[in-house]
Amino acid sequence: MIKDDLTNLIAQAIKKAQRKGDLPKFEVPEVILEHPKQAERGDYATPVCLQMARLARMAPMEIAKQVVKRLPRIEAIGQVEIAHPGYINITLSQQWLTQQVEDILATGETWGNINLGRGRKVQVEYGSANPTGPLHVGFGRNVVLGDGLANVLAAAGYEVQREYYVNDAGTQMDLFGETMYARYAQALGRDEPFPEGGYPGPYIEEWAREIAAEEGDKYLHMPREEALPILRDLGLAKVLACIREDVESLGIYYDNWFSERTLYEEGYFDRIMTLLRQGDYLFTREGAVWFAATRLGADKDEVLIRSNGEPGYFASDIAYHYHKFVVRGFDWVIDVWGADHQGHVPRMKAMMQALGLDPERLTLLIYQLVTLKRGGEVVRLSKRKGEIVTLREIIDEVGPDAVRFFLLSRSVDSQMDFDLDLAKEQSERNPVYYVQYAHARIASILRYAAEQGATAEGGDVSLLTHPSELALIRQMLLLPEVIEQAALNLAPHHLTYYAQDLAAAFHVFYRDCRVVSSDPADAEISRARLKLAQAAKTVLARTLHLMGMNAPESM
Predict the structure, then answer these.
(1) Between the CA of residue 359 and those of 192, 362, 463, what are the distances in Å?
(2) Cα 127–Cα 129–Cα 130 angle in degrees, nearest 5
(3) Greater confidence, 276 or 343?
(4) What predicted TM-score, i.e. pTM, was given to this entire model?
(5) Are strands 159-166 and 256-259 parallel, antiparallel or unpaired?
(6) Strands in 275-369 per DSSP E
(7) In the 8-state DSSP scheme, what is residue 373?
């Protein structure tokens, strides 16, 4: 990445100036490069000389002169200027900029990849709703955020596993099984009472009717205690098939679906209880077994085994994360959780310490809620069923690409409004349409060029000197930086803004520069511009794919 190259060169120039006696000895601060707001001030600027003024006991302008004097002039650097009160501004050379078009074309679909992660093994766990019904739209933000983050981390050089944690154990699944049994019996004409606190959604009635049609009434002819777990698991299979269909319609494919039940069946719950007991992190109160989380900085202790002998939710969390870190050996785990889990963060960090693990290896990414709007009004209920709006309904209404873009378009700590009307609008107001239309427009240009017998072969990119051409190249070169920023800050929403900026730069280029000309005198510049169009198509498609969206060839 050119930004890294320039950062290193500036740091080396400072150290060289120190060795030559132009600057006094002191520990060189981190060199930060920024993009100036005014284009005339160059491509990059650093305030490092201002930071060094106190250390060097020199005026920032004088420090900048000494640094610039020692800065090597590589091919990428076109101009270096010192700006008051001590900034160093760097403008990239035009020759180097245009050559990057060839590099983008040569790199292809992996353009923008960086090696920030250096193969570090990271798991992103997202979705993971209780499997008692279809995903609602709130979980849409969870899966879109998690998958977008996984894409970014993979592009940043991490070895990424995507996981869905299936909560198929515990009291909520027992209640789900009782609900399935009641609806199954009712579907076959038996007057079976609905369980107190059961799941009333019509989807369970539908699944129960399907099971009755597929299996007949045989589960009514066996003891109820035997039929309950069977119907629970048959219902679970229906739920997971529904969830899998929903996420796959968004282009989300998990590497692993992990069963909570296996933590108990394979002895991991017993193992962590032994470890916690050995570490003196357990105590008994009111017939329950507690985890002494307050000893490790949490604000309250947590129940692990209830007074009825059943494990609590947090017991599964500990065993699950033991399995992630100790058994499977992930270097880093990211759990994507909703805002209602914010209070659980301290206990999760305490759990890591109790297991002898570095708490920094676990990141809990907490996202805020989504508000659906239509016609300026908040949408709370399904139009078809009068219930909570499901993710499937939104996908069917606005399409998977719009769902992914809009749900990814805000930082995780921001509440967001999802404007359903805007998501369907085919105009420049709709950012999804605007970005995808840019890709489709490039594809159309390339098809037209082929029809006219025009080709990019032999195109000389050094002819790309128009300001709009250079602005488009500069925008394309930012993708590696965007990937780095998104990976470092766990903030894939930056992709949505970058995609709009890149599309805007292309639309301006298309407005200002005729790509395919019938005039033989323009043949050389046409070939060069076709190369630029191909490169822009590559980078725009790459950005769309990182967001999990399609790059349409026509619209």
Answers:
(1) 49, 6, 54
(2) 155
(3) 276
(4) 0.94
(5) parallel
(6) 282-285, 288-291, 302-305, 332-338, 362-367
(7) E
